[in-house]
Amino acid sequence: MASLSDTELAAMTQEERVKELGLTTEPLFGRSLLIEFNPDEEERFTYPWAPDVFYNKHEEVETDGLTTTELNNKLKEMMEEGVGTITIKNPRGMHSVGVGILNRLKLVIDGSLGYFAVGLIDGPNVHIKGRVGWSCGENMMSGTVVIDKNAGSTFGAAIRGGDLVCKGSVGSRTGIDMKGGTILVGGDTGALSGFMMQRGRMVVCGNAGKNLGDSMYDGTIYVGGEIQSCGVDAVEEELTDLDKAWLTRKLQQYGLMPDKGVDHFTKIVSGKMLWNYDNLEPSEKKLIL
Amino acid sequence: MCGIAGLIHKGKSSNVGSEMTAMLQALKHRGPDSTGYAVYGEPTAGDYVMRVKVAEREDMDRGRGIVDVLADRIATVEAILEEHEAVVKTKDEATPYALRYVITHSGDTEELARHIEETEGVEVLSMGNGLELIKDLGDAGEVAETYGLNEFNGTHAIGHTRMATESDVDIRSAHPYWAFPYNDVSVVHNGQITNYWIMRRQMERKGHRFMSNCDSELLAVYTADNLANGVELEESLKRSIQEIDGVFTYLVATKDQLGMAKDTMAAKPLVLFESDDLIAMASEEIAIRAILPHEIDTTDPYDEEVRVWQA
Fold first, then answer.
1. ipTM of the modeled complex
2. B119 and B199 in one domain?
C-alpha cells in the first residue's frame, strides 16, 4: 500500500483503489474512509506493551465489595497474567467498567453496566448480557462490543473504529461526533443521533428520533424504520447495491437481520452545504481523488 | 449534575423510606451537597402533616443566641396554628431547625401556610394528608438517620441528591420542592432552566411565592399554577416541555400519582424500570439496582416523553 504512486492510483478504478489502500469496498463519499476491523490482523491492534493473553485461559470476577477502580485494576492484573477470557459477574450497573483496555481480550459482562462502559478501548471483544447506561463505547478505537439489551444516550460518542452493537434500543445522540467504526442498533434511537458525525457508519433497524444526522460532516446512517426528522444538512441518498451488501453482511454477523431484508433501509448522508470541503489534507485528497 | 429518583408501588405500601435512601445513596456521586425526600404515607383524612423549617443549618453556627431565636419562631408558628384553630396532635423535632406537626384543621391550609411564612426565617416545606417533605445538607445516609426515614412506610416517593450549580448550598435550595399551596404535590429536578427569570416574574405577577433562587423551584410553582387552573398532571407535564426552556428531567408526585417529563433535547438522564407492582426510575441504573439487585430490564425515556403512573 505504501509504495503506490499517485499515477498508479489514478489509473485504477474506484473499487481497485480502495482495495489497494486497505479500505472498504464501498465507493468513497467525501471523507468517508473506513478501515474495517479484522480480528486476524493481529499486529495492527497490538500495542508494544500489550500483554500476551490466551483466550482459553478463563477467569471470573465477582464485583461484590469492589470499587470501579479496584475492578479495572483487577482486570489489568489478570491480563498481565495472560488471562484472555474474563467474565465479570453481577456488575449491578457499575460505572466505567472495562475502560481503556488496549489489547486483545474476550470480556463477558454477566449483567448490566452503568455509564461509560468499555470506553476508550482498542482491541477487546466485549459481550454485555444486560444493558448499559450513557456513553457506552465512547472513543472506542477497535474491537467489538455487543450489548444484548438496551443502551442509554450518547451511545458510541466519538467512536473511531470497531463495531459497537446494541441489540435493543438506545437513547439520544447516538454516535455523536463519531469519527469511524460502525454502530449497529437493533431497535430505535433517540433525537440528534449522528449529530456532527464525521466518519463511519450507523445502522438503526428501528425508528430514529428528530434531527437525525444534524450537522453531520460525513459518514453514513442507515435507518430501517421511520425517521422523525432529519437535521440540518442531513439528506437522503439512494441505497446502492454495495450498501445493501454491506448492510446484509453486518446485520447477519450480529444476528440483527430484519425478516424483510435491507431494501427498505433509508440512507442518510451529509448534504455538505455547511462547511468548506475543499480544505482536505493532501493525503486525504489522494484517497478521494 | 444532581441525581433524581422515584418509585411507586401499585396498590400496596412498602418501606419507601429505606428504598429511597438506598437509591439516593447510590446517586451520591451526582450531588453530595444536600439530599431530599418527598415520601407519601397512607393519607389520614382530616389530619395534615406539616413540615416546617425555622432556620437554615448554617444559622446554627451563629452563636448561642440562635437558640432563643428558634424558640421565638417556633412559639410564633404555634400561636398562628392556634389562631387558625388548628389542633396540634403530635410535634416532632428531628433537628432544632426542622419540625413536623400533625394537625387537625378544617380551614384553608393555604391561608394557614402563608400566615406561618410571615414569620421571619420560617418556611413551610410541605403540607398534606400523605406527603412528608424532608431535606437537609449531607448524603442520604445522614439525612435518613437524622429524620428517621428508614422506617417510613408508604406507597411512593421521590428524592434528590444535589450538586449546587445555580444557587447556594442550603436547605432552601435543596429539593424536593412543595408545589405550594397544593397539598401533597412535590417536585424534583435535574437540569437547568434557562428562562427561569422570565417565568419567575410571570409567576410572581400571578401571586405565587418563591422561597429560593434555585431554578428548580420554578417547576414546582409552574405545576402549582397549572393545577390552580384545573390542568391535570399529565397535561401540565406536556405543557412544560413547550413552555420551559433548558435541559431538564423532572419528577412530580401527588397524593396518588408519580409523573415524569423530559425536555426536548433529552439532555438529562433517566432510567426506567416498570413491573406490574413497582415502577422505579433514577438518573442512573445503579440506583434502581440498589433496590432490585437481580437482573432487570430497563429503558431510557426519549425526548419530550411524559409518563404518569397511579399508585
1. 0.82
2. no
